Amino acid sequence: MTGGSFSLRDRLWRDDRSAGAIVLRSAREVELIRDAGRIVALVLDALAAAVAPGLTTAELDALAERMIRAAGAVPTFKGYHGFPASICVSVNDEVVHGIPGDRRLAAGDIVSCDVGATLGGYIGDGARTFSLSPVPPETKRLLEVTEQSLQAGIAAAVSGARVGDISHAVQSVVEAAGFSVVRRFCGHGVGTSMHEEPQVPNHGPAGHGPRLRPGMVIAIEPMVCAGGYDVRVARNGWTVSTVDGSFAAHFEHTVALVVDGPPRILTLP
Q: What does pTM read for this prediction?
């Protein structure tokens, strides 16, 4: 689940002065987050296999909740600031935070599923976008580029770099492909709370923001639009859609920074 809105004037760009609010996790805590992240990954695998024309988004939500609870965890999103479901299901022009309901999926749709699981007080957070064939080649490319931008962001998340290096890596991949990246919402730290410091935007200059250090656990989550990046929030207070009606994709991993080399991805099966 994405972090909140922000501007370039807020705490994100206060450099190391904001680092005191960032929790550095122990190796044991990273393993606990990994346990929750594994559940998230398995749920996303099941959702990938389940999406089909005629299925309702509420049925996807029910499947996810059953799996999360069967694993001994609880759905992190359910009740979070009043969110009424266990996962976010966003279809086509919906970017993030879609509320599952009676909408039936159809051929040609793309479906973004965002899953959070809390196990033993620790949280895993991940998202993927699935397509229901047939979809146009440009839509397939949107999903491919969004996932590539996530991998670029992860590759940039090395100790000693800065949050802005992740942001710049994501934005560079997206815009080189002719797409746009959402500005209003961002990734975030994750651990024992759903949204922790630092905020991790998907755009901005390299070399800015808090320094990345071993023990930091962050959710990197590009939200990419086929058209413009302007979004609006529905009257329900949750569902975020593109203003121009263009399709949007969303991919996310929770990762832990290590002493040397690329971060450890905690939301893999």
A: 0.93
